[in-house]
Specification:
The chain is mainly α. Helix content is 67%, strand content 0%. It is flat.
Length: 129
């Protein structure tokens, strides 16, 4: 006897619904059972360092800082990809050398672009902040 072809689709849909909704339902049940019914002085007490906070907790950062960090990550990952190539340089064929050369040229293009846009000018970024 051969199963219905839609049987596996129903199972897949059920699993796709149970995996995300199951933990949410368990968290909701746990919250109902373990949470104090009303906030009290102990629940609203200061935690972490034990000091009362002063001022606004939300600090705005300039978007240039994030761009600077993303550029750093790109060139940091570049170093990770270049280390295995440098280790096995003598045993690789010419095609591997060309592939790494293209990789480096693309990264160099990204560096020139970031430099021309002023993304790497830390003094300018700090003045705008």
């Amino acid at each position: 006897m051969q199963p219905n072809p839609y049987f596996f689709l129903v199972i897949f849909t059920g699993v796709a619904l149970v995996f995300p909704l199951g933990p949410l339902a368990l968290a909701w049940i746990w919250r109902r059972l373990a949470q104090p019914p009303k906030p009290g002085p102990q629940k609203n007490a200061t935690y972490e360092c034990g000091m009362e906070s002063i001022g606004d907790a939300q600090v705005q950062f300039q978007s240039q800082y994030y761009l600077y960090c993303i550029i750093f990550l790109i060139f940091d990952v570049e170093a990770i990809f270049l280390v295995p190539f440098a280790v096995a340089f003598t045993g690789l064929p010419f095609g591997a050398f060309v592939a790494v050369l293209v990789f480096l040229l693309l990264l160099l293009e990204g560096l020139v672009w970031a430099w021309s846009k002023g993304c790497l000018d830390w003094a300018r970024i700090r003045k705008e902040a």
